[in-house]
Amino acid sequence: MKLRDIFIALIAVLVFGTSFVAVKLGVREIPPLLLASLRFFFAAVPAIFFVRRPEVPIRFVVSFGLTMGAFQFALLYSAIRLGMPAGLSSVVLQTQVCFTVLLAYICFGEKPLPLEITGSLVALVGVALIGVLKNGTVELVPFALVSAAALAWAGGSIITKAARPSDTFAFVVWSCPVSPLPLLVLSLLIDGRAPVTAALLHPSMASVGAVLFLAYATTLGALGLWTRLLSRYSAAAVAPFGLLVPVFGILSTHMLLGEQITRIEIVGSGLVFAGLILNVSAASLGGLRRQVWARP
Questions:
Q1: What is the pLDDT of residue 285?
Q2: How far apart are the C-alpha atoms of 175 and 61, rounded to whole Å?
Q3: In sequence order, what are the residues at sequence separation of 6 or more whose Cβ sits closer than 8 angstroms to the Cβ of residue 83?
């Protein structure tokens, strides 16, 4: 990769990682489902009026919007609202790589390489350490929600693989309008009208900044840069930069939010990171038989 494009990749993963700070700040004042709804509404408007509709069947656009958008971020934001540390969420969420390997085998018969199986097992051991042995900072329900969000992310990757969009950025933009309405309805049903109305009518500067950062800097900005790199280089060349997302996630939440990480979390995160490296190495050696998205 050219030095300029390496710099672009680093900017993209930096934004992806620091977006967990925006999520944490956002869910302090905005109901999590409403925050996800606002993210995708502003990501869709006005971008959808300037981006040509992708040449894929509409069922793929809708299913991708629901899975990668509504399901994933409803689960993730709810987990962080319930107390899951934002930095640690960025680590656990990366287990989507393991889920993608499994789903690719089930849906497409893609047999994983031995190194991919090893990497998945190592990562899952790390997740088990975080989720089972840690009983203080991380509770079972928030941890399970982030794990389910990782599964939703993997499902979105499989939908993308089945759709085979020629323009992945357009595919993402046009999937954004699918999520806001169902997320808003769920927020009204679960959180009630009063909290939703208060968040919409009396937003603070922090909540406005969080929504704009998630919609434009993360969804359109960083993801736009990432898809540009994927269009110019092989996924095997770009994917390893995605391993820096949890690194920036932990560092940014520690520096900006004061989140602490315990020894068990350090060991577990290290195992997840090692497992992901093994998966990426296997993809590089094996010719990258699948497309894995690397965005919070």
A1: 60
A2: 5
A3: 139, 142
Say if residues 71 and 152 touch (Cβ distance below 8 Å): yes
CA distance linking residue 188 with residue 36, whole number of Å: 13
Structure tokens given for 206: 């922090």
Mapping DSSP onto H, E and C, the string for 71-84 reads HHHHHHHHHHHCCC
Can you tell me which residue has the tokens 């969080």? 210
Tell me the whole-structure pTM to 2 decimals. 0.84
Helices (H), 82-217: 86-92, 96-108, 114-128, 140-163, 168-175, 180-191, 193-201, 205-212
Query: Residue 143's closest CA among 102, 93, 109, 193?
Result: 93
Whole-angstrom Cα distance, residue 66 to residue 178? 6
* CA separation for the pair 225, 251 (Å, rounded): 22
Other Cβ atoms within 10 Å of 193 Cβ, number: 10
What pLDDT does residue 53 have?
93
Question: Domain ranges in the chain?
Answer: 3-286
Q: Are 20 and 253 in contact (CB under 8 A)?
A: yes
| pLDDT means over runs of 10, the chain (296 residues) | 84 91 94 96 93 92 92 95 87 81 83 78 77 61 91 88 86 93 95 93 93 94 79 62 80 87 78 77 56 43
The length of the chain in residues reads 296
The conformation of residue 50, written as its DSSP 8-state character, comes to T
- Angle (CA) 11-275-233 rounded to 5° is 40
